[in-house]
Each structure stands twice: as C-alpha cells, then as structure tokens.
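Sequence, structure tokens passed on for absentees:
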Amino acid sequence: MLIISCSTAFADNSSVDLDPLRPADTSSPRDTLHSFLENTDQVIKDIRGDTVNKKTQYAYRRATETFDFLGVPEGDSWYVRNRSTALLQELLARLELPPEKDIPGDDEVADGTILEWTIPNTSIKISKIQQGPRSGEFLFSSDTIRKLESLYRQVKELPYRPGSTPGIYEEMVSADNTVQKRESILRDLLRPLDTSSPRATLQGFLDNVNRAYVLVTEVNEKLRAKPPTMTREEAREKEKSALDFLERAGDGLDLSQVPNALRKSFEIQAVLQLKEILDRMLLPPIETVPDIRMIKAAQKEASGDPSKSQQALRWRFPLVQFEIVEMMSGNRQGQFLFSADTVNRINDVYEKIKYMPYRQEHFGGTELEYLSPGRSPDFYESYVAASGNLIPQAHLVPRLVSGLPEWFHKRYAGQLVWQWIGLVLSMLSILLAAYGINKYLRLLVKRMKSPLQVWLKFLVPILVLSVVIIVSRFVDDELSFTGEIAAVVTTGFRAVIYLLMAWVVYVSFKAIADTIAAAPKLRDRGSEVALMRIGARVFGFLTAIWIIVAGLRDLGADLIPLLAGLGIGGFAVALAAQSTIANFIGGLILLANKPVRVGDFCRYGEDPSQEWLRIGTVEEINWISTRIRGIDRTVTTIPNAEFANMHIVNLTKRDERLMRTTLRLRYETTGDQLRFILIKIRELLLGHPMVTPNPARVRFLSYAEYSKNIEIFCYLRCREQNDFLAIQEDVLLHIEDIVKAAGSGFAWPTHTAYIARDPGTDAERKEQAEAEVGHRRFTGKLPFPEFDEEERVLLEDTVDYPPKGSPDYVPR
C-alpha cells in the first residue's frame, strides 16, 4: 500500500501548479464530506492505476485534513491517519448517503446555529471546531475517529453501494511489503499497553491476548502440516512475538503482591486464565467502561472534594468482582490496572467457570464496539497441556517426549508424568555434580599450597552455583511447570541459588584476604593480617546476609514480621552474648590500636607478685581471645575485652634495654679510690660497643648504712632478653675487675662477729689508684663531672666485646 509513502513524501517539489496546494474545503458539513470523498477516490484511482504523482500526494493530504485528530490518541502519527482515512472510506462506500440538499452547506451554517451534523442512521459526526487554529471548520469528530474500527467491523460484510469506489483497507492491512505494514510491526514491538483508563486497559488486554492466540494458532498449524510449512527457528521467533503480546497484556495487571521471582510464570498464567474468564462472559457495552474523558471528568469533580481526591478511581466488571483500579503510588502511579485482589482471585474464579461454554461469537453486535472482541478458546488449557510452551514443537524436550508411551503424558497434581521425572533427574544431577566437584577439588587442595588452596575451595560454591543455574534454566524453559507447582519449583531453585550466591560472596572475601595476607610484604605484619582477615570475614558475612534478605524479598517473604522477630530475637541474643560481642569489639580494638602484635614479647596486668606469670609472647589474636605463650612455655588465653583493658607493656618495642645497678663499696675506700673506680667504669661504659654512651651515668650516689654507693645507669644496645643478660654480664665482670684494680672491695651487711685479723685493703693497689688520680689531677684530665669531648671520642668502642677468648671475639 502506498498511502504512507505518498503522504510522507509531499513538499519535495515546489514547482508544481497551485491546485495541489489548495487546502481541503471544510467550511460546512457538505463541503467536508465532498472533499473527503473526492480526494480519497482520486487517491484510490491513482494507486490502483499505478499513476501516483504529486497530485495524488496532495489529494491524500486534503483527505486527512477533514479529520479532527486533536483528541485522538497518537493522532499525530501517519499510522493512525492512514488507518482512519481507509476505515472512513470503507464505511462511506457502504452507506446510503442522503441527498445533497439534506446535507448542511454554506447557506445553512451561515447563521451559526448548526454546530454538528450526523450522517443519518449512523454515529458518524461532522462537528464545528470551536477554538484553536482550525476554529470555524467542520471536521469529522474525534469521537467518530476513535470508533471507526468498531464501526467498520459492523458493516464490513455489507455490500458496497452502487457507484462507490471500493475501498482498500483490507489490501492495506494484508500487504506484507508496505510502509504501513512495517510501521505496524514496529508498533507491535515498541508500543506499551495503554493503561490511561479502564477502557484502554481492558481493550489493550483483550487485543494483545487475541493477537498472541492468532499467532500461536497459525504457527502450530504450519508446524503440524505435512510437510511443515515453517521451520522451527521461525517458529521460535514467532513464539517470542506471542510472548511479547502476552507480557504486554500482563502489563495491565497489578502484580505488586506477586513475588518478583514468580512473576514471569505467574503473569502468563494469570493473563491466559483471565482471558478464559472474560471469553465466557458477555462483554459490557463499551460506553459503560470509562474512557480517558470520563476519567478526567471524574478527577475534576473529585478535585473539589478533599474526601474523594485521595480515593482511587475504579471500575468493576459486571458479574464478577474484577476491578480495574487507578494506581495511587509507585512507579505506575496514575495508570489503571486490574487490581492486586483481582489478580489473586483469578485462579479461583477460573476453576469455578472453566467448564462453562464460551460466549457466542456475536451477540447483538454490541461486542463489536470493542477494538478486539475476539475469543481465544482453550488457549490456557493448550498452554498447560504443552507443559507451559506456546509452541511445543519448537522446543526439543516436548518434541522428544511426544513419542513416549501414553502413561508419560498422564497428569498428576496438574503436571505431566514426564515433567515429574525430568524434575527428579534434574535434582539428582545437581546432587551428583555437587558431590563430584567437592570430592575432586578436595583432592586437589591437598596437593596445593596457600593461597591456591583457598581459591580451589572458592571454586566449589562457584561450580555448584553454575550447575544449579543451568539446571534451573532447563527446568524453566524445557520442563515448564505451571500453576502452584511452578511456584514451588521456582521458589525452591531460587532459594538455593540465593544461598549459594551468599556462600560464594563470603568465601570470595575470605579468599581475597588470605591471598593478600600471603604477600611477602605482609608476612611479618601479623596484626594487620589478622585485622584484614577479620574485616574480610565480617564484610563477607554482612554481604551474604544482605543477599539472603534480598532473596527472601524477591521470593515474596514478608520481611516486616521477620525483621521484627529478628529485632526482638537480636535483643535477646545480644543480652545473652554481650560478653562475646564485647570480646569481638575488644579484638578489633587490639588489632586496630596495636598495643601488641602477634610475635611480640609483652608483660600484662598489674600484679607484681605474679609478674613472671604475666609475661610472654603473643601467638594469636582472634575474634574472641588472645593467646600468649609464657616464659614457662604454657599458653594463657585471655578474653579480648579483658586483655584490651589491661596495662600492657610491649617489651619487643624496646629499641634498647636499661641496665641500672648500685655498687656498694666498703667504707675503707678512700676518695681517690672512688675517683679511680668512677673514672674506669665511665671509661668502660664509653668504650663498650654495646652500651649507648648517652646517657651512660656512673655517680657516687650516697653514704649508706654500711657502704659507699655508686649508681650505674645506662642503656644496652639490644632487645632480646638473652642478649641483654649477656651484655650486662660482660659489663659487670669488667666492673668487678675495676674494683679489684682500685684495691677496694664490696661491702656486705652482717652482724656476725669475726675473730680473725682483718686483712684490710690492698695498700699497693691503693697507692697505684691514688697515683693515677693524682696524675689526672695534675694534667687536668680528671673527668668530674664528665670526660672532655676529645677523650670521650678516643674512648668510644675501645673495650673488647665479646671479650677476648670468646668464639665471637674480633680483634680491634
């Protein structure tokens, strides 16, 4: 058909004569009617004579100018204009038009009293436009244009009147190679269901189901032909188109109370069952179903009444309590859908009336007012009998089982025997695959090292999840259960999938943390690794819980009482497990604040009487407790909450070790002997390579009860206890030698009476010590209170350590 190509191509040549540019004469009903007929006759004549030219295009434009498309849905599209022009031409070609004198002309409308004229015995009206750019013109009314298709169905069996031009509507809609046909296909693919009013929703629902039925019936007949006149690939494409029609019809249902996971299968079943119900009832008169104008009028009336403005507009289908209701919230607000209550009752109503006969194909003609009043007999039963397939011969499994013995096709619980067998085999395949995957990967894990072990363990849930998804798709697409069984099967598979997804997420967090922890840079950073692992497990656990909650919501679980129960239960659990929670938080504090790390040597607690029991090496900081191996090699486990509140001394963090001791010399020690001892010990500390020279103090401290006391205060260059004791031992042995070299000795407290001659002090060494001090005094090198800087430098690192004779001795 060439109408669209003609109409869209005009105005590409400005050199034609002025007659084609003349607009349609719409000054009166007579002129409008004549203009439409003359121009459409010219268009049809040119098209059939294959003499389409510029005049044909302008004639078509003038024909469309006689319509008032302003109030017509999609009236600005050429698709609607083409169909409207062809339909009206078909109607007028079959009607007996009144004599010209009975049609109001310019003289009759001159006084302004005629605002509308109706063709006798019809509802075709030509009305005067009251406002807008076309004010004063007489055009075929918007109401007439909207009813053209239903009017055409009522008269299309009537013969054409003598002298009329046979129409071309049927040629236009049946031609496969026209622009009109291609636009029709695009509209089928892209146009959503019109839900602007109850009438639009009802009409759109009926039309889409009927179109799906016609398409499925045609394809099944072609596949059953001997030989088939359609390939299976073509049939599957047609089935997709039919499913699109049914899904579009499902857009007219409020599925808000249906779980997301079940909507796909439930939607098709509900659509087909609702159509079966409507096909057994008489359709109400079309004018009783509110359209967009009635809705706007009702909304305008309700806007003045606050009590009504918040109420949803609704229309109830006669006999049954099916309602089409305005959505008041959500992303579909303002649309009119079959209510959620209606959707929930569809199956029950269908079970009651499914044995009733279908309505008559025609009943008084009133149903022809509908855009698509046709029936789709046994559509739902055929769908169920074909195991949930619209075109069973287009699918492998239904085609294979069609040759099985009769008992395979018996029905139990609404499903076929072979479907039940397929379900059992599918579940067994999942169990066997899970067992095999787990066993094989466990054998591989024993041969691998970390972190490959972790990732092999991670593969278990991944592979099992993949198997479950593949099998579930097979069950959905090929076994195709229907009814309540479909809901149970789908819910079961989805629940398993969500649980496996939660498992995968948790294991993935753990695997990532373990992989990072195995990095060489982190091997000596035990606390950071422990904190990262705990954090990964916590985040993995929380994400897994979120997936499970989302899955429950997707499966339709009512989360409000569940969350309320969890809140109460959680409060009880929190009270019962508050110590565990406190320990977990304490562990996080220890790992984040890092007073000690795994491997650190520490002292903890405040009881000095048990200090030797409260010292050891940290071996583990986990979620609940800290384990410390004491110096007696026992392991002490301390709850984290308690350990985090203790005084903790991290001995490993010491960069140096303090050596502090007091020498108690005999009272017989003279001043110069003391000076000699002080000088030599200071030289020792400055010269010892394992003693930090600053600070390194040696001071005559006090006169005690039975001794002259010298305090030694210095830091040894070591961290470990064994190293400290070895260095301290060496320093003390050197001090022992210095005291003897000075001719002095150590005092000791005693009340024992000795009956013996006191050997006294060594007079010779005393003289030597006093002589050296005298020499230093004479030369100005007496180091009181400190050595001069030059001598300090000379003395530094002059003492042999380890001492001569030691295996580690290195000559200086």
User: Anything to note?
Assistant: The chain is about 50% helix and 10% strand. Residues 657-795 form a domain with the Alpha-Beta Plaits fold (CATH 3.30.70.100). The mean pLDDT is 79.
